[in-house]
Amino acid sequence: QVQLMEFGGGLVQAGGSLRLSCVASGSIFSINHMGWFRQAPGKQRELVASITDGDSTYFVDSVKGRFTITRDNAKNTAYLQMNSLKPEDTAVYYCYAVVVATGDHSAMAYWGQGIQVTVSS
Fold it and tell me: I want to staple 12 with a disulfide (CB 3.0 to 4.6 A). Which of 16, 25, 72, 95 is the partner?
């Protein structure tokens, strides 16, 4: 009963910017934290960024200073602003959210469909 939809991927040149959005919908009581994993071909999946319900953030070292993550609690939406993009940022980005659904007593993880980000050199 909870669904995540991702928006904003695409193709950009190195040095450019993209903004990803992740919208959670359904019967949501609360969202503990949201963020993005990414996976490139032949590479291990890694957590890129996350944000908690208290606006505490995490970034993997390789994107610090270039990416920012924010959330709009009223819209159940998180945003990943990606600046100064590099070819090594090319990957499929998967949004996730840890959600307590209405009527439940525990949190579960939900995943977006994945969205391609390609950065050309």
Answer: 16
Query: Each residue of 57-84: pLDDT tens digit?
Result: 999 999 999 999 999 999 999 999 999 9
Q: Tell me if 38 sits within 8 A of 93, measured CB to CB.
A: yes
pLDDT, tens digit (0-9, with 9 covering 90-100), for 8-27: 999 999 999 999 999 999 99
Do residues 79 and 67 touch, judged by C-beta distance below 8 A? no
Report the alpha-carbon distance of residue 43 to residue 96 in Å, rounded. 19
Whether 90 contacts 9, CB under 8 Å: no
AA letter at 113: Q
**Displacement of CA 6 from its chain's centroid (Å):** 8
DSSP assignment string, 27-69 = SEEEEEEEEEEEE-TTS--EEEEEEETT--EEE-GGGTTTEEE
